[in-house]
Amino acid sequence: FFSQVDSANAGRVLASDAAVFLKKSGLTDLVLGKIWDLADTDGKGILNKQEFFVALRLVACAQNGLDVSLSSLNLPVPPPRFTDTSSPLLLSGTASSDLPWAVKLEDKVKYDAIFDSLNPVNGLLSGDKVKPVLLNSKLPVDILGRVWELSDIDRDGMLDRDEFAVAMFLVYCALEKEPVPMSLPAALVPPSKRKPLSVPGAMPLLPPSTKESHQSLPPVGILAAKTPLTT
């Protein structure tokens, strides 16, 4: 991963390059911001190899529902996942549809209870029914407007059960003083809303991934490592 981002072999990664790469994790901008702050210990906007490894480890923690904090660094987690065909750890067919939903199951149960209490019609809540709940958070109106825009994923002026969960998730993030993203991160799109969107995106991934598998074998060193052992 490091050599992918540090293509010039400078031994360090600039903030702009790291940001583009880390966004492929599907995590929200606010989580990635927190990861960057913890990894960039001296605040120079540059990560050396060790600091970049810390960032990767924190991405893996966040993707597995663990706290983004230095205390999580020693916990056992699988490697981070990035939606990019040139990633050595990307399994074929991994698309945004396979990302774990950022809304945790226990939170979804709470949001569903609020949803049901608002008397949805045909599984949908109108803006008029959702508005008092949003205003109740005492967040600024411009923030609440953005929450509504991001959560009304199919743009029908109504929220279904999953879209309402997204709205509640964003409200609670904002209450924790975390910025509401300008666009909805892939990990926050409910799985029920991903399938139609991910099919066109998944089609062009096939040719690059077959090409990529040939290109990425030598640098990964699998062949070089195994050949001496088998002869």
From TrEMBL:
<dbReference type="GO" id="GO:0045296">
    <property type="term" value="F:cadherin binding"/>
</dbReference>
<keyword id="KW-0479">Metal-binding</keyword>
<dbReference type="Pfam" id="PF12763">
    <property type="entry name" value="EH"/>
</dbReference>
<dbReference type="GO" id="GO:0006897">
    <property type="term" value="P:endocytosis"/>
</dbReference>
<dbReference type="InterPro" id="IPR002048">
    <property type="entry name" value="EF_hand_dom"/>
</dbReference>
<feature type="domain" description="EF-hand">
    <location>
        <begin position="27"/>
        <end position="62"/>
    </location>
</feature>
<protein>
    <submittedName>
        <fullName>EPS15 factor</fullName>
    </submittedName>
</protein>
<keyword id="KW-0106">Calcium</keyword>
<dbReference type="GO" id="GO:0005509">
    <property type="term" value="F:calcium ion binding"/>
</dbReference>
<dbReference type="GO" id="GO:0030132">
    <property type="term" value="C:clathrin coat of coated pit"/>
</dbReference>
<dbReference type="InterPro" id="IPR000261">
    <property type="entry name" value="EH_dom"/>
</dbReference>
<feature type="domain" description="EH">
    <location>
        <begin position="107"/>
        <end position="195"/>
    </location>
</feature>
<feature type="domain" description="EH">
    <location>
        <begin position="1"/>
        <end position="83"/>
    </location>
</feature>
<dbReference type="GO" id="GO:0016197">
    <property type="term" value="P:endosomal transport"/>
</dbReference>
<dbReference type="InterPro" id="IPR011992">
    <property type="entry name" value="EF-hand-dom_pair"/>
</dbReference>
<feature type="domain" description="EF-hand">
    <location>
        <begin position="139"/>
        <end position="174"/>
    </location>
</feature>
<dbReference type="InterPro" id="IPR018247">
    <property type="entry name" value="EF_Hand_1_Ca_BS"/>
</dbReference>
